[in-house]
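Predict both folds.
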Amino acid sequence: MSKLLFFATLLSLAAGLPLRGQALYRAGQGTVYFKSDAPLELIEAASKSLRGVIDPVKRSFAFSVPTSSFQGFNSPLQREHFNENYMETDKYPEATFTGKIIEDVNLAVPGVYTIRAKGKLNIHGVEQERIIKSTVESKGDTLLVRAAFTVLLAEHNISIPRIVYQKIAEEIQVTVEAGFSK
């Protein structure tokens, strides 16, 4: 369902574009990194499968990452538990973030901008409205987007079994970096 939502958002972004003027910025690949720093264990993983689109005219965006694409972890068993027990990737194959850029900024003008992205963060099938502060470096035809934020597992109905409570943090640190081009 989230894949359908992502592509529907992409189509709606593209449908409202003027015939002339700025084009969409697209990221075919970006990186999402997460860290769970619990009292007994540090878990880190990353995905280089982030996709996204930014419409600078409408100041709208859509990002998606397949949850099964995360690599790293401390062991293959830990990755298996991440996919099967916590993220349930068969049932919720993607995490998405769609919404609007709050600031009135012209991303076609080269510079470094601090912006706030307001939208719906969908993880584990649960949508939460979020405002995520980001840095956007524009070089005119390309954008580099960086963001760091936290995700509370409870807000996305991801429960931690009592037996591993000291090994998995309740608050996950997330870092995103993606390059976009017209």
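Second protein follows, with its predicted structure tokens after the sequence.
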Amino acid sequence: MGNDMAKTSSAVCVFCGSRFGKDPAYRDSAEALGRGLAEAGFQLVYGAGDVGIMGAVANATQAAGGETFGVIPVHLMKREVGKRDLTAFVVTETMHERKKVMFMNADAIVTLPGGAGSLDELFEVMTWRQLGLHEKPIYLLNINGYWDKLIALIDHMVAEGFAEPSFREFLQVIVDVPTLMARLRADLS
């Protein structure tokens, strides 16, 4: 599924915040996801930072014995505290290269709560899917309704004729980590 590098198991790309956010459930969910990925034998592919829920998901994956593949642009090494103790650590020149390498090394995409960067990453992979460039599953982890307004906006785009109904269908909205892990196991087996 669009992966040029040999790997032994499926890989899940996680887009998420470099901050913790206000609700402790965001961090708890990131940690639960990291543990779940490791326990299921899925490799974590993520932005290689050691801050916010980005760092939480990676640390939890590592603590549970999972493999981690981090990708970070050189200009964010200090800001996001590049996590060098990963299974694989890639430094890119640009943000676009970062997204491409993350995407190319994953079989599925999950977006946790985050900010503008997470939205940019999510919408790029959704646009690529809309254009027929991939068929990878895309999941939105909607912890405590964090993404409700985004989902409403996407529904509004479809209703107003700026996107096909299939655009909304590309996005699988999941409300908790156990449900997400069950879906990942089913879709990646």
